[in-house]
């Protein structure tokens, strides 16, 4: 049984602290800074066994060194980003099954935001740590890969079961929500979810985790191959999902 704790970091990053009480194992995913993680661990009197990274950006690995120094934790990171993340103990690759916090986890390579980005999926816990690939109602900016690569990465995540809880790397939900409503204003499910999101943010609560099944119906980026959707929102790129994805991504980048 896994407990996931959400730690706020930097301006809008989420660090995930994973705890397996039965096995007495604690891990952290994407510690952009060490301070808040150390404080959390001190409060609980837990040791930190594992540090896990989804990709090499500083806001996801900035706390690695300090945490490894203090706790001598094992560092698990994508093999494709080996040259850009130091002190890795276990390199992980696409489709590999590894133990994280003592729980069987599938590694999904999702290039696009960075070329080596990976997501971590735990089938038994029904949860996905999506880093900067899939955000609530959005997706990461395409910095290193092609638009087509990013689209195919999102398709890979979309193929996971509807009852998956998604934990993403940033609280970008309000701004994603505004854009989603701008292009897809007639979507009643989106309208309903938007109210819930506003309520949570008004109370200062995180919007993660979110449900993947609902996301498949309301995240415009996941619907780039839905021709009815593409037509109804007035996009030009019919019958070419990665072109439609690119069009939506450009619109969002300039929104
Ligand atoms: Zn990033
Ligand atoms: Fe990030």
Features:
binds zinc ion; Metallo-beta-lactamase, Chain A; alpha/beta; binds fe (iii) ion; 6-stranded mixed sheet; 14 strands; 255 residues
Written overview of the protein:
This protein is α/β, with parallel strands linked by helices and 255 residues long. The chain has a single domain (2-173, 205-219), classed as Ribonuclease Z/Hydroxyacylglutathione hydrolase-like (Metallo-beta-lactamase, Chain A), CATH 3.60.15. Helices cover 34% and strands 25% of the residues. It is built from 9 helices and 14 strands. The chain has a 6-stranded mixed β-sheet with strand order 1-2-3-4-5-6, covered by helices on one side. Strands 7-8-9-10-13-14 form a 6-stranded mixed β-sheet. It has a two-stranded antiparallel ribbon with strand order 11-12. Helix 4 packs across helix 9 and helix 5 runs antiparallel to helix 6. The radius of gyration is 18 Å and the shape is globular. The model has no long low-confidence stretch (mean pLDDT 97). Bound molecules: zinc ion and fe (iii) ion.
Let me know the largest β-sheet: 6 strands, mixed
Question: How large is the count of helical segments?
Answer: 9
CATH architecture annotation: 4-Layer Sandwich
Order of helices and strands: EEEHEHHEEEEEEEEHEHHEHHH
Terminal CA distance reads: 41 Å
Global structural class: alpha/beta
Tell me the quaternary state: single chain
Mean pLDDT: 97
CATH top-level class: Alpha Beta
């Amino acid at each position: 049984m896994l407990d996931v704790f959400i730690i706020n970091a930097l301006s809008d990053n989420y660090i995930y602290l994973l705890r397996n009480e039965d096995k007495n194992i604690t891990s952290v995913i994407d510690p952009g800074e060490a301070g808040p993680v150390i404080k959390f661990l001190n409060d609980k009197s837990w040791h930190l066994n594992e540090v896990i990274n989804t990709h090499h950006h500083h806001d996801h690995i900035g706390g690695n060194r300090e945490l490894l120094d203090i706790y001598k934790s094992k560092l698990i990171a994508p093999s494709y980003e080996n040259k850009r993340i130091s002190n890795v103990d276990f390199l992980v690759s696409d489709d590999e099954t590894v133990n994280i916090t003592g729980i069987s986890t599938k590694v999904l390579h999702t290039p696009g935001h960075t070329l080596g980005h990976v997501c971590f999926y735990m089938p038994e816990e029904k949860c996905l740590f999506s880093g900067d690939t899939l955000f609530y109602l959005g997706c990461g900016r395409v910095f290193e890969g092609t638009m087509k690569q990013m689209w195919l990465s999102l398709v890979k995540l979309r193929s996971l079961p509807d009852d998956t809880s998604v934990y993403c790397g940033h609280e970008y939900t309000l701004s994603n929500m505004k854009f989603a409503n701008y292009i897809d204003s007639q979507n009643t499910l989106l309208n309903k979810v938007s109210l819930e999101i506003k309520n949570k943010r008004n109370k200062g609560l995180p919007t993660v985790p979110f449900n993947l099944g609902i996301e498949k119906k309301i995240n415009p980026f996941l619907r780039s191959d839905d021709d009815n959707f593409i037509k109804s929102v007035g996009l030009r790129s019919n019958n070419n999902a990665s072109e439609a994805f690119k069009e939506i991504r450009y619109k969002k980048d300039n929104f």
